[in-house]
Amino acid sequence: MAILLFRVDERLIHGQVTLGWGERIRPSHYVVVDDALAASGWEKDLYQLGTPQEATSDFVGVEEARGRLAEWRRGAERVVLLTRDLDHMTRLARGGALAGETVNLGGIHHGPGRRERLPYLFLDDADEERIRALVAEGVDIVAQDLPSSAKTSAARLLDA
What we know:
The protein is α/β, with parallel strands linked by helices. It is built from seven helices and nine strands; from the N terminus they run E-H-E-H-H-E-H-E-H-E-E-E-H-E-E-H.
């Protein structure tokens, strides 16, 4: 059917995604785009435990994901595509691959050099550059932890 949600969330497949967003958009397939995770069998097994019974999940690297975007967009499944960080989402978007799409920033937590922008979103200088790069690729950026929460635009995040 379509990719219903592109989301950056450090926790990847977890309750906020599977319940909070899942009850709203009813995904049948979760795609996690993460180079290290795609190469780690035990981590994939661990994250698959969080996949709801009625859904399936795939764990792929950025290059494989770029090659499969058209398949996921035109397929019969209702897809949620997740990355753990802005680096993976930015690499996925290069060359206009996500132009016209909306990327949801749902959970980037405190870390060295990061400043709080929202209670669930902390960004450092590199993260802000990646947001600007995504916008330059034609991607709409919104921060929104749950469907019932207010949306915050990239412009407001970067001006904060």
